[in-house]
Amino acid sequence: MTDRTTYVTLAGVRRRGWTDAMVRDLLGMPDVQGRDPRRWSLAPVRLYLLARVETVERTAEFGEAAALRRARAAAPGEHAELRRAAVLTAIRAEPIEVPLLPGPELERRAVRHRHLLGARSPGPDPAASLVRWQVSYLRHALARYESLLDGLYGETGRGEAERLLRRRMYEAIAAAYPVLARECRRRIAVER
């Protein structure tokens, strides 16, 4: 049998599943309040009679408050999932418009873009390098579509949304410039 004069600290009440708002609204003032003689602290010790805590835990008000707390704890995950689904839908629905340039102009812009990035030499195969540079330039020109990712933070579907957006961009580049399609398919395959 439990000693009915046993007290529970605020930390102990929290471990039982209470929130500070629930303590304030359902328990009210502590049964004993003062300084802890074992510690040098200005924070008061608040003690609640265990029998009173257990009595309140059996009430309907406590059950409703606990259910509301559990629902609120689950809500951020549900909200993040809804936000992720909305962003993925927007990425799938957004038409991606690739700038159409004549071949020599695209080559000139791609080389200039590459030099601005600090590239040195085209490598062993200049033709293949030029194709990679053109795809990189067009990918950079489509960077404005990355604003579709706004609202996704951390792990909440951000990686999946970025991969979907890049795949859609490469597919749009391949459709607009069939000569670059092979490089676009290669990049899609590498990013999977």
Order of helices and strands: EHHEEHHHHHH
Instruction: Give me the secondary-structure category.
Output: mainly alpha
Low-pLDDT windows of residues? none
For the largest beta sheet, what order do the strands appear in spatially? 1-3-2
- Percent of residues in beta strands: 5-15%
Helix segment tally = 8
How far apart, in Å, are the first and last alpha carbons?
62 Å
Overview of the molecule:
The protein is mainly alpha-helical and 192 residues long. It has 2 domains: 7-58, no CATH class; 97-191, no CATH class. Helix content is 60%, strand content 6%. The protein has 8 helices and 3 strands, in the order βααββαααααα. It has helices spanning 10-15, 20-27, 50-57, 60-93, 103-116, 126-141, 158-176, 181-191; strands spanning 7-9, 32-34, 45-49. It has a 3-stranded antiparallel β-sheet. Helix 4 packs parallel to helix 7 and helix 7 (158-176) packs antiparallel against helix 8 (181-191). The radius of gyration is 31 Å and the shape is elongated. The mean pLDDT is 84.
Highlighted features:
192 residues; mainly alpha; 2 domains; three-stranded antiparallel β-sheet; elongated
Can you summarize this structure?
The chain has 192 residues and is mostly helical. Helices cover 60% and strands 6% of the residues.
Describe the secondary-structure layout.
Elements: E1 7-9, H1 10-15, H2 20-27, E2 32-34, E3 45-49, H3 50-57, H4 60-93, H5 103-116, H6 126-141, H7 158-176, H8 181-191
Antiparallel strand pairs: 1-3, 2-3
